[in-house]
Amino acid sequence: MRSIYKTPDELKMMLPAGVLTAQALDAVEAAIRPGISTLELDAIAERVIREAGGVPNFQLVDGYHHTVCASVNDVVVHGIPNDTPLVAGDIVSIDCGALLGGWNGDSARTIIVPEADGQDASGHPRGDDWVREAHRVSNATREVMWHGIAAVATARHMNDIGGAIEDAIAEQPGPLGNLENYTGHGIGRNMHEEPTVFNYRVRRRGPVVRAGLAICIEPMLTAGKPDVLVDDDEWSVRAADGTPSAHWEHTVIRHANGIWVTTAHDGGAAGLAPFGITPIAP
Ligand code: MG
Ligand code: MG
């Protein structure tokens, strides 16, 4: 069994895949607008990854054939891209990963589809309250992700990270449903490796957090209750109460001198600043 701890050289080799994953998400974010479909966004992400010599690592997952997961509105995670045009106010979580040089990146962002330029704000079909809740749940999910990433710098055991995320969720305004049975993970030569990264406290303290760890922190929240249903497509994980839902994710490494977010262009500097943490490249 391979160790969950990478060597300093191995951690360095993970950086290009992280940057490419960020670039694919940048391209999706720049293209998202009313009328575009998630299948078109998927093609944009695939082009960015392949033109750089990478491989969309989601296509290496058994039974999955796309570059991104696109989870719209009450779908929390694992939504399959389709040809339905997006409308302003839709909340879209795009999860994407690249394999480059034998190493993986994995990251997700949630985007509220903006109004098209010059178009009257007609509002989302589900109304203004929907859009407000969409922003609330996305902001909360991004915020608690950064709490989890910051905890990688100081945690002694993996369970400290889940605890930091759980505590941060409790500090956020309004109801939030923290998904059970869906977790973050280790990452390296494979996109999904040990250890499991829970978004809440569990009974075991988990593996030691120390130099060499490379993990994905990925909270998944609904704007209501944590109960979810899986669609007949056997992938899409949908909030049972139909509330808008969000998913944010970054790949983060801990090395001898600090932490670095491989899937953020600034290594996580902006997100970690409120915690007094300056990321250091490995
Ligand atoms: Mg992901
Ligand atoms: Mg992941």
Topology summary:
Blueprint: H1 8-13, H2 15-31, H3 38-51, E1 55-56, E2 68-72, E3 75-77, E4 91-100, E5 103-112, H4 128-154, H5 158-171, E6 177-178, E7 184-186, E8 193-197, E9 214-217, E10 220-222, E11 228-230, E12 237-239, E13 245-247, E14 250-255, E15 258-261, H6 269-272
Antiparallel strand pairs: 1-4, 2-4, 3-12, 4-5, 6-10, 7-8, 7-9, 9-14, 10-13, 11-12, 14-15
- Gross morphology: globular
End-to-end separation: 25 Å
Tell me how many strands there are.
Answer: 15
* Distinct small molecules: magnesium ion
Tell me the series of helices and strands, N- to C-terminal: HHHEEEEEHHEEEEEEEEEEH
Strand content is 15-25%
Helical amount among residues, as a percent range? 25-40%
Backbone structural class: alpha+beta
What's the tally of helices?
6
Q: What would you report as the Rg, rounded to the nearest angstrom?
A: 18 Å
How would you name the oligomeric state of the polypeptide chains in this document?
Answer: single chain
In short, what is this structure?
With 282 residues, the protein is an alpha+beta fold. It has helices at 8-13, 15-31, 38-51, 128-154, 158-171, 269-272; strands at residues 55-56, 68-72, 75-77, 91-100, 103-112, 177-178, 184-186, 193-197, 214-217, 220-222, 228-230, 237-239, 245-247, 250-255, 258-261. Helices cover 29% and strands 23% of the residues.
